[in-house]
Structure formats: structure tokens, C-alpha cells
Amino acid sequence: MTDRRKNSVFLRRVPLWAALFILLFASALWAASETGATASNFLKIPVAVIPSGMGEAYTAMVGPDSILYNPAGLGLLSYPTFSGSHNQYLDGITQEYAALSYPSKYGTFGLGFSMLASGEITAYDSNDMIIGHTSTDHRFITLSYARSWPHFSDDIGKLDPMLITPSWTRLSPITDYRPKAYRLALGTSIKQVSEKLADQQSTAYSFDVGALAVLPARFHIGVSVLNFSGRQKFTDEAYDLPRILRAGIAKDFHTINDIIVFKTAVDAVQYSDYGSFASIGLETDVMQVFQLRIGYKTQKDTGSRISGGLYNFIDAHREIP
């Protein structure tokens, strides 16, 4: 049986019920916690450049940062990618992030890392006397696997014209015939989360699962469940990791000759310890030279609800030759 026939059979047997299954699975096992009654809440802090500029409306987008929002997005990447960022906060607090993805004939593999470090903190005793210095460290490592259908090994290193094209790539599109029905990708991640608070340290493991469908006219629909099943224990008490349920849509709009490309994305997000809110993102790409991004969240009492950024094409998000 040819690759084309195999893919056609698969698409008939496995329709878009995968995303619905993930939603039902998450809803059946979702148990709301008190606000803030979770561990490792640093997992909620944005770390990636492009998603942060779009208000984190990234569940239905495709890129190396999909490892943070929906691992299924990695399965639609037909070329190796890298994403990275460094943030310097006040009082010596730093944040690092890096993600890699590599496609193969067996699917796409991803690796991600992030760390939030407090730097040196002056320690005091109960009488407010300086007794030395301490520090905190929060990090996670993620290993992901994703696959898309139809899947053509010959497409590695080329762009699928059915997808919303990232503004940071210069690769050529696929010229061979490919069915323009739809694309379906499924992905999963295993995540190690560790925190060090002074002389106390704790490690937990969790899972992410996701699905992403691409419809004709570059219309993306995605759903994911993040930080599922993990519990972290300090001293005598254990807390769940902040489980996150995400669902999103994305679409792009092109002017004549692709001089300007608008990309829009909307996410519905639910935290296990907070509730639901929406994220809205817009990117304007001018001739693949510079991009303007703006995002908005309806989430309350969490600091700034508006985000944005202006970038040229020399970004931390690049395909790897």
C-alpha cells in the first residue's frame, strides 16, 4: 500500500474525534483546587518570545514553542527548529528558556528547558538579623513526541503550504502534490519539574497531551492538557501541579503578494486553581522583515493583561539548516 493510500485510510478511520477525546478526558478528571493551592506556579509564567507577545494565544499555532502550549504542534513542523530567550528581572532574578525540535520519518521529537532563578537573597533570622544568604531555583525539562497525518518523509526541510507559515522561516514550500483535505497532529510530553527553596528540594513528573487539526485555508484548531498527574511535596505537604486546559483557533490573512500577513489566534484557558479566561493575539508581518505583535488576556488580578512586541527577522526563533 502506498504512503498516500495509507494516510487516506488513517484519516477515514481516525477523524477529528481525537481533540474531542482529550477535552472529555480532561473534563472527567478535572478537580478544581483553591486559588493558588498548587505547586510550581512558575510554570504559568510566560517564557517564550512570540507567544508572550501574542498574549499566549498559541494553542493552535505551530512552532518550537508548541512544546509549552500544545505538543501536537511539533508534529506539523517539517524542519528542525530552535527557540530561546533570556529575561533579566529586578533584584537579580533571571529566567532562561530553550527548545529544540527535530522531524524524522517516525515523527517529531522535541526537547525543552526553562529555569527561573532568584539569585542571591539575604537571609534573616526571627530577630531581623542577617545570617547569610540563600537562593531559590525553579526549573523543568520536557521531552516531547508528536506526529501528523498525512505524513510524508520527503517533506522534511520544506514548508507545508496548508499551514500558517511562521514569520521567521525562509524555507521553500513543498511543490509536490499533497492532499488539501486537512492535517491532524497528536503529541505528548513528559516533564520533570524541580524546585529548590533554600535547603529544601522537591521533584515531580507530569504529562502533557494535545491535538491540532489544520483545515483548508490555513485554519488551525488545537486543544491540550498540560501538567497532568503531577504532585510535588515539600516537608509534609504535597500539592498538585497547576493543571491547564487549553483550546484555541488560529487563522492568517494575506495581502497581495504577501506584502503584509496578519495572523490571529484566540485561546480559551482554564487553570485548575484559578478558573477560565481568554487570550487573544495578533501578529502583523511586513515582508518577513519585521513583525508587530500584540496580545490581550481577560485574566484578572495577575498583573498586566496586555502584551506586545516589535521584532525584526533576526529573532530567537529560527529553523536549523
Please, could you describe this protein's structure?
It contains four helices and 17 strands. By secondary structure, the chain is mainly β. The chain has a domain at 3-73 and 154-187 and 202-316. The strands form three sheets. A 13-stranded antiparallel β-sheet has the order 16-15-14-13-12-9-8-7-6-3-2-1-17. Strands 4-5 form a two-stranded antiparallel sheet. The radius of gyration is 20 Å and the shape is elongated.
Question: Over all CA atoms, what is the radius of gyration?
Answer: 20 Å
Overall geometry comes to: elongated
**Cα end-to-end separation:** 32 Å
Number of helices: 4
Helix fraction bin: 10-25%
Average pLDDT reading: 81
User: Which percent range describes the beta-strand content?
Assistant: over 45%
Poorly predicted runs are 6-15, 312-319
Biggest β-sheet: strands ordered side by side in the sheet: 16-15-14-13-12-9-8-7-6-3-2-1-17
Overall SS class: mainly beta
Q: Summarize the biggest pleated sheet.
A: 13 strands, antiparallel
How many beta-strand segments? 17
Oligomer: single chain
SSE pattern, N- to C-terminal: HHHHEEEEEEEEEEEEEEEEE
SSE blueprint:
Layout: H1 3-13, H2 17-29, H3 49-53, H4 66-69, E1 81-88, E2 94-104, E3 107-117, E4 121-124, E5 130-134, E6 136-149, E7 183-197, E8 200-215, E9 219-228, E10 231-234, E11 237-240, E12 244-254, E13 260-271, E14 275-286, E15 290-297, E16 306-312, E17 317-319
Antiparallel strand pairs: 1-2, 1-17, 2-3, 3-6, 4-5, 6-7, 7-8, 8-9, 9-12, 10-11, 12-13, 13-14, 14-15, 15-16
